[in-house]
Amino acid sequence: MLKYAIFLFVLHVFFKSTTGLYFHIGETERKCFIEEIPDETTVLVNYKVELYDPRSGGFMPSSPGIGMHVEVRDPDDKTILSRVYSSEGRISFTSHIPGEHIICLYSNSTAWFGGTQLRVHLDIQVGEQAIDYANVAQKEKLSELQLRIRQLLDQVEQITKEQSYQRYREERFRQTSESTNQRVLWWSLTQTIVLLVMGAWQMRHLKSFFEAKKLV
Questions:
Q1: Would you call 211 helix, strand, or coil by DSSP?
Q2: Which of 21, 25, 135, 200 is deepest in the core (most CB within 10 A)?
Q3: b or e along 45-68 (b: 16 or more beta carbons within 10 Å of the residue's beta carbon)?
Q4: What does the pLDDT read at residue 109?
Q5: Chain centroid offset of residue 130 CA
Q6: CA gap 5, 169 in Å, rounded
Q7: What are the φ and ψ backbone dihedral angles of 197, each rounded to 5 degrees?
Q8: Whole-number mean pLDDT of the chain?
Q9: Residues 137, 143, 144, 147: what is their CA dihedral angle, to the nearest 10 degrees?
């Protein structure tokens, strides 16, 4: 039982998905990120845009007119979300199928400030990491113990989803491997048949040639 609990803990730490970073982007650039997400999982995207200041050589808070167009596509390349937001915001969506979800950000204009760079701070939280437990405790009037139990239950549920997703990936990989092996087999058989047919045709042609020359 202890080994199983340790395994769940390690698995949770391994799959715990919280991505905090920043990147620079120009007015015509587009940045995309790939997140492997189980099905029926909530994803929270926090971002903040800063504008490059040539006088100080640093970055300052952007003006209200500067925003970001955020687009999210699922593994079937269907658009889940596509909208222009302000220079700072929080975006939430729920995955309905497991797999690689693509999150793209790009500027909402191409003529704001003559090509100055933007710095975008991005934080992607998946699963129970995206839940605001302080707000949950306030709304549902939960005690500290009840809130902790709720967090543990959510963590167990997320681990279960991650395990299901790994089984899904393993099944997809197995199907791909079997399909590849079948194609290689059929290709080899086709090559063998073509070689046999060509060999038989060449032997027949040579036989006819030798008969015509009265060599046999």
A1: helix
A2: 25
A3: bbbbbbbbeeeeeebeebeeebbb
A4: 61
A5: 17
A6: 24
A7: -65, -45
A8: 78
A9: -50
